[in-house]
Amino acid sequence: MSTQQSDIPAGAGDAFGTAQPDVLPNGPGAAAILAAGIGSLALGIFAFAGDASPAILRAFNFWSATGPLSGVTSTAVFVWLVAWYWLARSWAGRSVSLVLVNVAAFAMLIAGLLLTFPPFMDLLQGK
Q1: Is the pLDDT at 6 greater than 50, yes or no?
Q2: Where does the sequence pass through the membrane (predicted)?
């Protein structure tokens, strides 16, 4: 039986005493990915809502030189930044399932893209 001491700090090994590599938490990266999906979906929802309702369209007119597009994109960017900040703070030291985050973000990206596609918006509005 060997009595050699190891250079592995206490608590760094598993139950069998073998060294485990340090694992960085992936929460902040996952937060950025999911926030991008949320921002994309917000852009689609705001574009759809503006197209469906003249009152919402007028509310999104932040700068008349560009029309309602200025409000739609500015509000979507605001939602993206708030989502990113909140998720990054919530998941700061955690590791989350990147598969679930990527699938959710991709689904939101596709939904947001479809909601900005005029034939799809017209289909949803019954035009």
Answers
A1: no
A2: 30-50, 62-87, 99-117
Collect all residues with Cβ–Cβ distance below 8 Å to 52 and sequence separation of at least 6. 121, 125
Structure-token match 């694992």, residue found: 23
User: How far, in Å, CA of 118 to CA of 81, rounded?
Assistant: 26
Q: What residues are paired with 19 via a beta bridge?
A: 13
pLDDT tens, 35-83? 999 999 999 999 999 989 999 999 999 998 888 899 999 999 999 999 9
117 within domain boundaries: yes
Find out whether 46 and 54 touch, Cβ atoms under 8 Å. no
The token pair at 71 is 């409000």
Domain contains 115:
yes
Chain position carrying tokens 């973000």: 105
What secondary structure letter does DSSP report for 67? B
When computed from its CA atoms, the radius of gyration of the chain, rounded to whole angstroms, is 23
**Number of structural domains in the chain:** 1
Helix, strand, coil percent values for the chain (each to nearest 5): 65, 5, 35
